[in-house]
Amino acid sequence: MTAHAPVLGESEKPRLYILDTNVLMHDPAALFRFQEHNILLPMVVLEELDQHKKGVTEQARNVRQVSRYLDEMLHDGDDLDAGLPLPYAQGRLYFQTIAHSQVLPADLPGGKADNEILAVTLELQKRHPEWQIILVSKDINLRIKGRTLGVRVEDYHSDRALEDADLLYTGLEVLGADFWQSHSRDLDAWQESGRSFYKISGPATRHWHPNQFITLSPEGAGEEFAAIVRNIHPDHCIIERVTDYRSERHAVWGIQARNREQNFALNLLMDPDIDFVTLLGHAGTGKTLLTLAAALHQILDERRYAEAVITRATVPVGDEIGFLPGTEEEKMLPWMGALEDNLEILARGSDEGGSWGRGATQDLVSKRIRVKSMSFMRGRTFLEKFVIIDEAQNLTPKEMKTLITRAGPGTKIVCLGNIAQIDTPYLTETTSGLTYVVDRFKNWGHSGHITLRRGERSRLADFANEAL
């Protein structure tokens, strides 16, 4: 009786991942992130990498890094059919060494890179039924086409900061009504330099983060207790009551907080011990206005910082802006409409001087605000600057790291953005650099985050956000 080899189920078959070009352009280290599984690079992917290697964009730098990785792994005399061992992983790297013969459907003509990758995948499925062939791409349309042809396709997941954007840290926890009853046994309260502190022990404190805001009642439910977590110890936490920037006597450069989250944002922006702040929120929540008001107050009134430096991700990120006339700042002005709008609002605080007073204020403010392009940030160090990164949701984690590491002594960095409005190709809510830093900085004692929920622009804008 002849013995037959067992038929393996899909989950038991060895996997071979075929990588699309955009995966490597997004994360050069993707070559080493598939653990014990094998990887194959089609020839068309190598061609596309060669086409994108020139330039100063982040994607071009990533392509050059991929080329360096491949060059380090390739040696004379290597048997490419047997694959190359992958450093930092247990799998092997294969290259397409023979032409495929797979015929694509008539409506998917050859010659297009995406279709060539699909053709290679279909050919491998036909030749190697003992393998589980998986195409990995960040291109949604390619994944859709692959599924219609019976190809197993996946997004690239290793660059995700979170599995679900709904799990993103908000910087605020609303405690239950029974909080004081369950945590008052070892409560200690005192005042220091006009500030109120509390020492609290109990189960709720185990999940708190440094500079997280806590409140005991929903907004608008009468007198509310709001505090910020200052110190976390194994058996207790120290919290401090927040400053109420909703009152006129605590107005910042003439601006008062209009809701609870704006109040918390100003507490972070005005705190000299917090070096890194992230503010999330949709259009009209006041991110830019609050940040500019805090910056001007600390630059001109408290003289804590020398000047404000404002930059933002131009779309697409990193492209040259040389086609616009003028200096670096003049070239960036078309991208800085929000800055001009908010400065106009802040200048209205000089009404007692009439039009001359407003003009003088605008002239004074403009001399302390510098607009810079991200294209020229490498190698810089910011000393005693208030740095504002607008539209930060369009940055990759690597680009975000490049900007934040520019901070020198006495510098504060504030990142503003809305992860629901990402314009950069292949970035999502879970892979955005803004999501990445919110998650990575939440346990650091000199950073703070708050998500702004309520729009304060106008009743028209609020209704449009809800109805459209």
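The above is record 1. Record 2 follows with the same two-line structure.
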Amino acid sequence: MTTTLDPVTEAPPARPEDEKLPLPTLLGAGLQHILAMFGGVIAVPLIIGGAAGLEGPQIALLVSCSLFVSGLATVLQTVGVPWFGSQLPLVQGISFASVSTLLTVVAGNGAEGMRAAFGATLVAALVCLAIVPFFAQVVRFFPPVVTGSIITVIGLSLMPVAAGWVTGQATLNGAPNPNYASGANLALALVTLAVVLVLSKIRATSRMAILLGLLIGTVIALFTGQATWNLAGAAPFALPQPFAFGTPTFALGAIIAMTVVMVVVMVETTADILAVGEVIGTHVDSRRVSDGLRADMLSSAVAPVFNTFPATAFAQNVGLLALSGIKSRWAVAAGGVVLALLGLSPMLAAVVRVIPSPVLGGVGIALFGTVAASGIRTLSKVNYQGNQNLLIVAVAIAFGLLPDLSPSFWHSLPEGLMVVVDSGISAAAIVAVVLNLVFNVLAPGRPPEPSHLAAAPPRLVQQGEMEMLRGKGEH
């Protein structure tokens, strides 16, 4: 690709992210980034709105607001203002990391649950915004053994959501649901998943596999009668109404749980900022990291005002930078503008509402599985020899999955504490951080013989090698 020269200096930009592109290329590259993350952005409000028991128009509002805030957050992160924005080609979207905790807060509580979720998000984001200058001291407590465990739990704990989309509810209005786990719904979900897998294999469509899977699955559902096209009453344009669900409420337990989540989000954003800098070949110092984190937390604090959830960096777009070779932050900023404009159209949100649950379930299997696989990939980089890291991962993941495997496990605890540990992500984060402190930070030294739980794989390898050597007569 030919570098566009500055019209005044006639020299290439000092930073690759400042490259100016022709308008068609700018819009095309921006739209590509939006398509790569669109499915993830709309999935979060669909998950949370459904769990809260909201009606169709209310879920459509959540989707519109999520698109709108994601677009504004992307523009802030890429263009930047003093103290806010890394000025890197970093796409912002509604974070999956918050879903598990928010589900605990909103479950079946309708608008009341949404107000509590928005209040917890607002306070947690402001708390984390305040600690950005000190975050360099906190990051060391979130090494890969901690973040990998947390990300794995995020993906695994969302799998029941995907399964519920496929099967539907067992009862409707107190009566058995005749379509519960029906063969037709299962077939639609599996066909949608197959479409996503096939499109992921094709290079030209791999970055749009989720969005195209939703589209093709919905078209199939329309032909089979499993979806209904209804855009009645949907306006083509409308400004989002602030606090549409009412004034936020503030529950201490929910705030603590969301603060834990937002700290994890800050760790993920830091990693994304550093990764983008490495991919595009630009210098990223602590100031740019801090500015990026401040933009992240400010966007997340504003999000509840516009009826949505924490907006943070989308890691999947980092790979798109390497694939496309387009490093300009202005391309991503253009995509952010398009995303915000899409969020101003209730008609688009109504189109999204047409997507049937089994189609979401088929896509969710791939989407949530990818999150879990990302955590496993992070854990693969952890050193497990001569330490207790395997035990840290094991216990953290176990605590993270307990709320899903046994929903009433923590219900004898006080309500404020229960909200914190009843969220898989919060429980996994707390346990992983504490165990990492105990075994890797505060411990006076690593034991010469770790427990058999942590050391079993290395010891088996060493024993096998010794037997092989002895067979050759070597001692």
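The beta strands are 92-94, 171-172, 175-176, 311-313.
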